[in-house]
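Question: does this match?
>
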Amino acid sequence: MVPPRAMTPAFSRTAALVAATACAPAWASSSPLTLAAWFSSGATLALAAALLICWLVLHERVVPRSAWQPFAVTAAVVTPAVGFMAGRWPLLALCLSLAALAWGLLMVHRLSSRMQHLLEERDRARAAATQARKDSERDALTGALNRATWRQRLEQLANDGSAMQPPRPLSVLFFDIDLFKLINDSLGHGVGDDCLRAVSACVAAELRGGDVLGRMGGEEFAVALPGARRIHAIAVAERIRVAVQGHCRIVGEEVVELTVSIGAAEYLSADESLDALVDRADRAMYNAKDSGRNMVVADAAVPAVP
C-alpha cells in the first residue's frame, strides 16, 4: 500500500490537470472543423458590418441596399446557426459558413469594382474639365493665352504686386510681326499661320517662368513681365527682337525673314488703370513701327520715386 505522503504529488498533478481541463475555454477542445466554421462565420459577420458601414458613408455610390441587405440578413442568421451546429455537425457548419463567406467576398469584389469605376469616371471628368478650361484660355493657333485670359492674368499680377511691400514692379510689352499683311497676301494664309506659330514659340522660349504671353488678335501679341522695371522690360524686348530675327528667317519652306516691332511700358502705380498701361505700350509699339520697324521703343513714363 502506498503511503499517504507518497500519494500527495501524484494526486496534486491529477487535480491540477482536471482543474485546467474544466477551466479551459470551449474552443481549446474543439476540432479543426469547428474552429474553421467559427472563423469563417466571424469573417462573414465582419464583412456584413463593413458593407453596412460603407453604405452608410457612401450611400448610393456603392452596391445598392437591395444587393447587400440579403447578405447582411444571411450573415446574422448564419452566425447563431453555426454556433448551434458546430458541436454536432462541424462539417455542415463549416460548409454553411464558407458559403456565406464566399458570398461576402463576392460582394466585396463588386464593391471594389464599382468604386474603381467611379474613381476612373471622376478622373476622366476632371481631366476633361481641365482640358476644356485650358482650351478656352488658349489661342487655338499659337497656344498663347487669348486676349481675355491674358487681361485677367495682367489684373491678377497688378493686384498681387500692389499688395506687396514695397510694391512689385510690372511692365508690359506689345509687339506685332512687321509686314505681316504682305506675307499673307503674297505667300498665303497657311504660311501666315505658320509665321504666327513660329513667332509665338520663339518668344515663349525667351521668357521667364512667371512671364505671361498672350495673343491680342491678328499678328499682335503682348507679354506681362511681373517684377520687371522699364529698363528690364527693354532688355527682355531686345532679346525677343534678336531671337525672332535670328530664328524666324525660314518658316516651313519659305524664306520670310520675320522681324517684330516692340513697345514697352512700366506700370506707374495702383492709381493708373491697366487700360492706360496697355495703351502706352501699344502706342510705343506703333512708334517703333513708324521709326523703321524691327526695333524696341519704350514709353518714357516711370513710377515716381517715393
Summary: The chain has nine helices and seven strands. The chain has two domains: 10-133, 147-298. The radius of gyration is 40 Å. The beta strands are 170-177, 212-217, 220-226, 250-251, 254-255, 260-266, 296-298.
